[in-house]
Amino acid sequence: MLPPNPHSQPRFTPVQQTDFDALGCKLASISHGYLPPQIKDFNDTNITSLYENYNQLYQEFHAHLKPCLSRRLASKLNTTIAHSLPVMNIGTYLRTVSIDFTIIQYIHQLNNSPFQIVNLGSGTDLRAFHYLPQYANLTKFIDVDYPISLDFKSRAIDGSSYLTSFSTSRYSMVPWDLSKGSLIDILIANGIDVAIPTIFITECVMCYLEDSVANQLIQTIKANFLHGLWISYDPIAYSENDRFIAMMNSNLIELRNLSMPTLLKYNSIDKYSNRWVSVFDNLIAYKILSLWDFYMEKLSNVGKLRLKNLQFLDEIEELKLMQSHYILLSIRW
Ligand SMILES: C[S@@+](CC[C@H](N)C(=O)[O-])C[C@H]1O[C@@H](n2cnc3c(N)ncnc32)[C@H](O)[C@@H]1O
User: 8: pLDDT confidence band, cut at 50, 70 and 90?
Assistant: First the structure.
């Protein structure tokens, strides 16, 4: 009998495993038809060109990921896909499109000048493969995550000729623990130019970082990058006794042995955004809104109805409660 191959049975820590939840929710949202978005979903901005290859990208990725998964992880992923509730599927849709919405608005203002994207704590997200073919002026897209997470992601990509065709020299995966210093050096070594406008994405990542690590990250990026956009998506508490967040936190601790260290500390929209606003003294603009606000403001009535009917959602109050507890911050400097 062959000895077990440790490479094929990676041991993910609880925080690294959160990426399987994000991926499972995304695959569920795709399989039920929420993602990709449709033109008629929105009142004004059309972002659908970004999603031309969306289904195929994720289908290929999922198919080539399966052989890399241990039985336990495969079953965990399947459970997430199967049990993702309609409110969660709409949440995944809102999270995905609101980030792309904000990025595209920024890119339009750049008038075809070069720009870069760094996805911090990217996990298995494949945003790079939507953006790179669309924008010739996107000079570099870098995914940063723990070595084990990116090793896993690259094995799935390398297994597919379709996926590898997107992986050009403009794309890099940078295995890195964000709690370690010298992120800038490693980004520069991988082709990032600090003088070019740079979009940083932290999608459900800041909430898992220790306060000092998150604040150091903000300081480092401010100190090194001349211009940019930072988009941060996270859950948010509205008071020290926020029941929704308290339940989320206790579930995480009980089921996963995982906590979100700063969730109750930054327990208002102002406190959350002030972490950036107090550091970026060269701020051009910033906006913070809940995903419920995004749903109400940006989605057309036709779009809302489409989402509602996909799985016959009748719990709109539940959607409101849940999505009010997720925010998107964008800051431009
Ligand atoms: C909830 S997942 C989100 C993944 C992806 N951003 C998305 O939304 O699809 C959180 C990700 O942050 C990564 N992460 C958390 N702490 C990190 C750290 N200190 N260094 C690098 N990555 C980290 C995890 O490995 C995981 O992939």
Answer: low
